[in-house]
Each structure stands twice: as structure tokens, then as C-alpha cells.
Design goal:
Layout: E1 2-3, H1 4-20, E2 29-30, E3 34-45, E4 51-56, E5 70-77, E6 89-90, H2 94-97
Antiparallel strand pairs: 1-4, 2-6, 3-4, 3-5
Protein name: Trypsin-co-occurring domain-containing protein
Pfam family, one: Trypco2
Domain Trypsin-co-occurring: 2-79
Length: 99
């Protein structure tokens, strides 16, 4: 299991890697809305600083989350570059860029 915030942070890191690999010239792809559907488990703590934590569940994982506490969450993320509000461009040619 991984916390939902860590999942989104890793997704952002992967997308930043893809954006950095985009060539200045040639074929590039505009990165549009990203739809993610994940199964999450909720952990509630009951103390003075009560909060709920969301965990993304791995398929085939060894976790023991009760079926009744698992929910499916669909996120639609719309990426932008910095404060410009412009969509990023990506390329699948990172290996060529390193040559």
C-alpha cells in the first residue's frame, strides 16, 4: 500500500521526467487531462488530532483491508506548467536524448 499523496507525488515526478524529455523540435505530445482510478483504503485515527489517511491498494497485494472499507476513487488531473497555465508537452524519446 502507498499513501494517496505519495502516489500523486510519484505520478508528478514521472510526468516531469517525460516533459523534460520533450524535444524542442519534432514530434511532441500535449499532455491532456489524466484520469486515474484507484482502490483506496481509509485509516481513521481517533485522538486529539483526528484525521483520515487514504491508502492506494496494489492489485494482488498482501494487505488485509476489510472489503467494506475499500472504495474506488476516480481522479481527473489537468496538468499545467508552472504558473503559466499552459499544458506541458511530452515525448517518449528520453533514451535518444541521452545519446
Amino acid at each position: 500500500m502507498i499513501e494517496l499523496a505519495d502516489f500523486v507525488r510519484e505520478l508528478r515526478r514521472e510526468l516531469e521526467t517525460a516533459v523534460a524529455a520533450a524535444p524542442e523540435e519534432g514530434l511532441r505530445f500535449e499532455l491532456g487531462p489524466i484520469e486515474i482510478e484507484v482502490s483506496v483504503g481509509v485509516e481513521k485515527t481517533a485522538n486529539a488530532a483526528a484525521k483520515a489517511r487514504f491508502w492506494v491498494l496494489e492489485l494482488g497485494g498482501e494487505g488485509t483491508v476489510a472489503r467494506s472499507s475499500v472504495q474506488t476513487v476516480k481522479l481527473t488531473l489537468k496538468p499545467h506548467v508552472g504558473s503559466s497555465g499552459l499544458p506541458p508537452y511530452v515525448s517518449g524519446q528520453e533514451a535518444e536524448r541521452e545519446r
